[in-house]
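> example.struct
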């Protein structure tokens, strides 16, 4: 018996043959039921004889229609509305053929009988498949040890999340309850999953239904204050929490590609949505040749994604590391088509000749300068490399760009340039001074944009914490009181592009980073988002500040704070820095040239001597 069942299960031909025979029986039953309904449950003998003569033709018409209509090619376990519409259309065609045959071949059957046969055949054939589909799904869900899942949000995204879970309960879990703050949805069901409470009832419902995972399916929340409240409630339950990412990403054919992903730290940051002045941005990017140095990096690649939306004539991704640049080029072509005006050029800002080649061939109108050594502890061990790349690389770019008629250059700076305590921050402060100088002595419009840490960038603390949590801990924090300013990559890129539209030449702009965030708090929130308890399930280990690190970063120097002014954009400010003396700046550069080949303590001392606001991290710890 077991072998017979296994043979039926493993052989599509046997399954289709049995299903075909079942459909023959169902059509026969439909014809007989139609006759009985027509004659009110009693069929006269002469009509019974007529029906028996016509049966082979009627059955043949319906079975051929089912075959050629693709009914037997449908996977009914995953059938949807389109598949039911196909069955309805095929049954309608078969019914129409029998009506034509009845008229010209003289089957002598009532038209009402043939019409009823079409309706009943569709109901019987579709109904038996629907019953099997429900039975199969319940059997799969019941047999598996799928973990109970709560879904927050009973809208379209919630329905999508329920559907995804029901299709693969073994991997995604089994939805047992939905919550939604809309009172009109209370008591309703989505694919048999009830809506039984509001977000304030999350802890209570988790206990009641034994929920082990929560999916937040309200994409419009993003990182709003309401999201913060929901995350706090989820954290109280110690359930693993994931989030529905709305249809913002495009697939390879331009289709929307929503997904259910892990929470990240940006979900915990309560920030207002960025409002861009698209007219001003389009005015300096649309139809222009735009070059992004370091275009394959975290912030550089996001700048490219944002810039391409404003339809430049050409986007140049200038990058020394070819792998990231190639992946970005492929992504942009997948999203916007092969005709997307993007070109990847491999080169270094240290190489003045290569910069001149690019400028001479493509004549960029706008340059975004994101290429830099940014990792603080690494630059403490290799200070000369920071000087070569950050200082003299930027100088090469400024000289080449101004010589070849670049209209506008936007330099990406950092909060670490403010009262720097490390080599990286000191070199970025020098680049700000270079921007000030070239903004006043050349026709090129130059500006620097200063902002703090970018979430998810290469080498940032958040991806490290996530890897540590997934491996079982411990999660490392440098100091219990260390704080940092944080901004998401898209947010930073959008504001940098906006800043490029509104700044005057030689200006240092500062982005509104919100309030500084305590790293210990972020670590605890992230651990709870994964369903663990800090220092119980996942330990937190204090490892001490790394070379070059401060407890807290600043966005403005003391001399700038009192003179700071607003721009037309509420999240962008002007830091009125002290003017730069060109002769003094040249002396500074000449002094730095003497140590570009020495990665030792003497190099750091020279850097400290040329940057007045520099204070060694060693004196601060």
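> example.seq
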């Amino acid at each position: 018996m077991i072998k017979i069942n296994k043979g039926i299960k493993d052989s599509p031909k046997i399954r289709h043959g049995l299903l075909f025979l079942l459909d023959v029986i169902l059509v026969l039953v439909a014809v007989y039921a139609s006759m009985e309904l027509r004659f009110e449950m009693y069929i006269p003998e002469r009509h019974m004889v007529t029906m028996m003569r016509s049966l082979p033709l009627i059955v043949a018409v319906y079975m051929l229609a089912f075959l050629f209509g693709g009914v037997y090619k449908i996977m009914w376990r995953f059938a949807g509305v389109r598949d039911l519409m196909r069955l309805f259309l095929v049954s309608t065609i078969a019914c129409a053929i029998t009506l034509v045959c009845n008229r010209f071949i003289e089957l002598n059957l009532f038209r009402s009988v043939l019409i009823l046969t079409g309706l009943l055949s569709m109901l019987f054939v579709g109904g038996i498949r629907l019953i099997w589909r429900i039975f199969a799904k319940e059997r799969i869900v019941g047999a598996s040890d799928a973990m109970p899942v709560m879904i927050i949000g009973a809208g379209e995204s919630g329905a999508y999340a329920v559907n995804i879970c029901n299709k693969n309960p073994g991997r995604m879990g089994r939805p047992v309850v939905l919550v939604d703050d809309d009172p009109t949805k209370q008591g309703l069901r989505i694919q048999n999953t009830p809506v039984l409470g509001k977000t304030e009832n999350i802890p209570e419902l988790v206990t009641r239904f034994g929920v082990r995972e929560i999916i937040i399916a309200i994409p419009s929340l993003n990182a709003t204050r309401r999201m913060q409240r929901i995350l706090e409630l989820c954290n109280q339950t110690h359930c693993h929490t994931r989030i529905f990412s709305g249809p913002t990403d495009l697939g390879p054919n331009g289709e929307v590609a929503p997904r259910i992903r892990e929470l990240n730290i940006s979900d915990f940051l309560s920030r207002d949505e960025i409002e861009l002045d698209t007219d001003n941005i389009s005015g300096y990017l649309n139809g222009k040749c735009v070059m992004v140095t370091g275009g394959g990096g975290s912030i550089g690649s996001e700048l490219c994604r944002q810039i391409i939306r404003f339809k430049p004539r050409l986007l140049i991704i200038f990058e020394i590391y070819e792998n990231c640049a190639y992946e970005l080029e492929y992504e942009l072509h997948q999203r916007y088509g092969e005709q997307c005006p993007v070109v990847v050029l491999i080169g270094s800002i240290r190489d003045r000749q290569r910069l001149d080649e690019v400028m001479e061939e493509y004549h960029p109108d706008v340059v975004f300068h994101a290429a830099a050594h940014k990792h603080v502890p690494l630059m403490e061990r290799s200070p000369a490399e920071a000087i070569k790349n950050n200082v003299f690389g930027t100088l090469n770019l400024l000289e080449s760009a101004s010589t070849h008629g670049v209209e506008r250059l936007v330099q990406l700076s950092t909060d670490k340039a403010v009262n720097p305590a490390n080599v990286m921050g000191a070199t970025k402060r020098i680049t700000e001074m270079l921007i000030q100088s070239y903004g006043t002595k050349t026709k090129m419009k130059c500006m620097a944009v200063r902002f703090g840490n970018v979430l998810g960038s290469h080498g940032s603390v958040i991806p490290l914490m996530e890897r540590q949590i997934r491996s079982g801990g411990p999660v490392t924090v440098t100091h219990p009181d260390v704080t940092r300013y944080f901004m998401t990559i898209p947010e930073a890129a959008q504001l940098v592009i906006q800043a490029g539209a509104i700044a005057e030449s030689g200006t240092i702009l500062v982005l509104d980073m919100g309030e500084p965030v305590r790293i210990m708090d972020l670590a605890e929130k992230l651990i709870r988002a994964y369903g663990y308890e800090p220092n119980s399930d996942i330990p937190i280990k204090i490892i001490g500040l790394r070379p070059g690190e401060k407890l807290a970063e600043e966005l403005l120097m003391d001399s700038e704070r009192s003179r700071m002014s607003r721009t037309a954009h509420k999240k962008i400010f002007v830091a009125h820095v002290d003017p730069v003396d060109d002769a003094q700046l040249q002396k500074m550069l000449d002094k730095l040239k003497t140590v570009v080949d020495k990665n030792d303590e003497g190099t750091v001392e020279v850097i400290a001597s040329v940057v007045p606001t520099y204070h060694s991290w060693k004196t601060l710890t």
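> remarks
The mean pLDDT is 83.
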